[in-house]
Design goal:
Strand content: over 45%
Number of helices: 0
Radius of gyration: 14 Å
Number of strands: 11
Mean pLDDT: 96
Oligomer: single chain
Order of helices and strands: EEEEEEEEEEE
Distance between the termini: 38 Å
Shape: elongated
Low-confidence stretches: none
Helix content: under 10%
Structural class: mainly beta
Length: 118
Amino acid sequence: VQLQASGGGLVQAGGSLRLSCVASGSMFSINSMGWYRQAPGKQRELVASITSDSVSTYADSVKGRFTVSRDNPTVDLHMNNLKPEDTAVYYCNAKIKERQWDRLYDYWGQGTQVTVSS
C-alpha cells in the first residue's frame, strides 16, 4: 500500500490551497484518513481526520478554515484563509487493513510543503 500526496505550494496569507492524497495497492478496508503537519522545530500534529462514516475531526487552529473530505481511496484537504502559521510539511495518513483478518496499520504519504507568506 502506498499513499501519494499532491497539492501544496506557496500562497499569500488569506489564500487557499487544496491537498489531495490517494491510496493505492491491495487493501481490504480503509478506516480513518487524514492530514498531519510538521513545522520546523515542532512535533507532527493532527490537522484533520475523517472516519469511514464521514465523521471529521479538526485541530482547533484550523476549525472553520479547513475542510477534510474523502471519496475512497482519496482524501482531500481544502484550506481557506491560510495564515503564515499554517506553514509546514503536510502528511496524509490512512489506517488500512490489507487483508480481512489483519489489524489496522498506519500508512503515510511522502509529505508536501505548504508555505504561507505574510
